[in-house]
Specification:
The chain is 35% helix and 12% strand. By secondary structure, it is an alpha/beta fold. 21% of the residues are buried.
């Protein structure tokens, strides 16, 4: 008992000492935080430096032009796309009044072709592309849209210089006509269909308009692609009979093995998406590629009208003519016209060759040695003259 109470009596002073030390440490920390920052030598000489706090200004909205980022080889440069960049984009030239018209007819594929041709001839003021296609039309359903009846009126209205046709994507169906009902892919169907194609192409021959018939491309459905191959053979035969141009675009929309492709090379060789998600429609790059194959024949037919440098001179773009005042007209000296064959045109009085040529000057022995590599014969009696007298009837000989 007594030992336990003695131990507790010894611990009480120790606990008190620990508590006192804790309070002293807390007090020292508080004092240290309240102490001011020690001054350096400059502050002791010139006083403490006063900090100037600028009042915060509200943010103001600034209307700035958007900026684009242009990536170079190893850096990224920011360029403004404001009015300066907008002015750099040149507008296409306006079409002239007597521009040649390219009439495009057919189905939805022809509609995409016309969009590509408009882009192809955008910079040609002498060419205008007229789109008169009907997306759901064809040569089978003449009850929906009868092309042999409608086309002559369209040609008379537009008065085209070239007729471009691309049709057949909607014709894979039964023919109903005077022959009865003909199922697709039968021999009777192809015979009747070729007659309709011939009648369509004959309209261009009767109107004496150059015909450019564009074949069908490949499609994603395999049966549709197989049918397009056989239809293209019919189109080619009919167009050749009327001496038109058949444009084969097949290789532009298949790979090296002849299979349908969604993505391929555009007209610049870059890999882009050419067809829509359904495998039938065309993207902008695909439409431009259709036009790339077709515009070659159009440019050959139209000639200089497809040049982008073709400009029509009128009162708006004629150069200013120089006009002289009446007082200046009195000082003008008029001269009679001179013929191009007049000898006095270049200041002479005779034509070239009328006088004999001057005789060639006699060259000195040195000049003859330099020019011809030979020396003239020495005169008779000189020491280097070693010729013997010629006997009668013999030629002279020289001794070495």
């Amino acid at each position: 008992m007594f030992g336990r109470h003695a131990t507790q009596s010894r611990l009480v002073p120790l606990w008190g000492l620990v508590i006192a030390l804790c309070f002293s440490l807390v007090a020292d920390l508080a004092v240290a935080q309240e102490q001011p920052k020690r001054r350096n030598l400059l502050e002791m000489l010139f006083g403490p430096r006063q900090q100037v706090v600028e009042p915060s200004r509200p943010l103001q909205r600034q209307d700035r032009q958007p900026r684009a980022r242009r990536t170079t080889n190893n850096s990224v440069t920011s360029i403004s796309t404001g009015a300066a960049a907008a002015s750099a984009v040149q507008k296409p030239p306006a079409k002239i009044e007597n521009a040649k018209k390219v009439l495009v007819v057919g189905d939805f594929v022809a509609s995409g072709l016309s969009d590509g041709l408009i882009t192809a001839f955008e910079a040609s003021p002498g060419v205008v592309v007229e789109n008169r296609s009907n997306g759901s039309s064809g040569l089978v359903r003449d009850d929906f849209y009868n092309w042999p009846q409608e086309l002559p009126g369209i040609i008379a209205e537009v008065k085209p210089a070239v007729l471009v046709v691309q049709i057949g994507a909607n014709d894979r169906q039964q023919i109903v006509g005077s022959e009865g009902r003909l199922d697709f892919r039968t021999d009777a169907w192809f015979t009747a269909y070729e007659k309709r194609v011939n009648a369509f192409a004959d309209i261009a021959r009767q109107t004496n308009i150059p015909l450019v018939w564009v074949g069908l491309p490949a499609f994603r459905p395999q049966n549709m692609t197989a049918d397009a191959i056989r239809l293209n053979a019919i189109y080619r035969r009919s167009v050749e009979q009327v001496r038109g141009d058949f444009v084969d675009v097949w290789d532009g929309f298949v790979d090296q093995e002849g299979r349908f492709i969604i993505t391929g090379s555009d007209i610049n060789g870059q890999q882009v998406r050419l067809r829509g998600s359904d495998g039938i429609g065309f993207t902008s790059a695909g439409k431009r590629k259709l036009a790339f194959y077709t515009e070659k024949s159009i440019r050959r037919i139209l000639g200089d009208m497809t040049s982008p440098d073709l400009v029509r001179l009128d009162a708006d773009n004629l150069p200013d003519l120089l006009s002289l005042a009446p007082t200046e007209m009195n000082n003008v000296i008029s001269t009679s016209p001179i013929s191009l064959f007049d000898p006095e045109l270049d200041g002479a009085s005779e034509l070239l060759g009328s006088a004999p040529l001057p005789m060639a000057p006699i060259l000195s022995p040195r000049d003859q040695l330099v020019s011809n590599g030979t020396l003239p014969e020495p005169p008779a009696g000189r020491i280097d003259y070693v010729r013997l007298p010629r006997p009668q009837g013999q030629q002279s000989t020289a001794t070495p």
